[in-house]
TrEMBL record:
It holds the Pfam family DUF1668. It comes from the Eukaryota. This is DUF1618 domain-containing protein. InterPro entries: DUF1668_ORYSA, Gal_Oxase/kelch_b-propeller. SUPFAM superfamilies: Galactose oxidase, central domain. It comes from Urochloa decumbens.
Amino acid sequence: MASRSPKRRRRNDERCGHCAKRKHLYLALDDWRGGYSVHKLDADDMPDHLSEPPAVRVTGPDWGQMSFAGFGTNILIALNQRCPESFPTAPRSLIYSTDTAALTVGPCLPHDHFCDLDSTMTTGGKLYARSWVFDKDRESPCFSDHMQILRPTGLEDLWDPSFRWSWDSKPIPPSMLRERRITCQAMHPDGRTIFMSTDCKITYSYDTNNGEWKDLGDWELPFKDQAYFDRDLDAWVGLHATEDGCVCLCPVASRSTAATQPPKCTMLKERLRRYNKDDPRYQYPMFSREKATSLTYMGDGRFCLVEDIACSEFVYRDGSVVHVTLFGLKYDNKGELRTKAHRTTRSYAVSKNGPRFSHAMLWI
């Protein structure tokens, strides 16, 4: 009997009700005159062009920018988290279900908080985001830190679909974070402890089960933005904090014991990023788009590197090219970190791209 092709076998698996839902990459771009698009990509069969229409298209605000964050099988779309509380008509968020492809109204963001929804963590179907609020009732008014938790309420068949989710605000002890900028965060392999390094070179941990915070010492993780645990390598993997766009890894730090030295960092010698400041083709800066390069973990030792390169200094008018690279990591026989033999690369032309938002890549 002839064996079935991988694609046919995969399609049959998708029709099986007992099989786990296949995950996809979701690429959010500010790529059309009216706002933002979210494109659904099959990591096993990457398209040569972004399909039209996209999975969902949302009209963007005239002032400010949107943010996208994944939790569970949903995508939170914050219409404008920087809208001041003096605007009582500020819109709610939207939630896109990757299960049903339905777009519904989400809960209002905490109106008196500034939420950093560009640096979120997710575990147990919940979304964790840091926020700030100006506490004017104190004897000495100042900003205070909070952890915002977006969770499902379990309520269904309501007249207002936004009641299906709610934000829960937990104050962060004043001795933790101290209004410092979080430079990197990583989830411990226990699935409950979030590590956070700050720009004052101190690392903290937050237990999502009991809400306990710990000061882990005067050191910082070597990554920029988010790092991910790779079980095969038994290490965290992310983009290096100072070596622009380079991939690196380090051992998982202790969640219970403070340290005096950071974990040893191992660099990937192969360069995956295309941007080169000395190459005239890449001479145009990405303005304030600090996250023009991102790394997303896809599970099973696979990673997705996204790089957004402007076509000219007028990025809003002339657009950019989004380069997507799928790869895995391994150690060679010399003990050096290498990419696995199979690597997938695609490049997508984007006709318009706003200077304040580059992209968001989610694996759901």
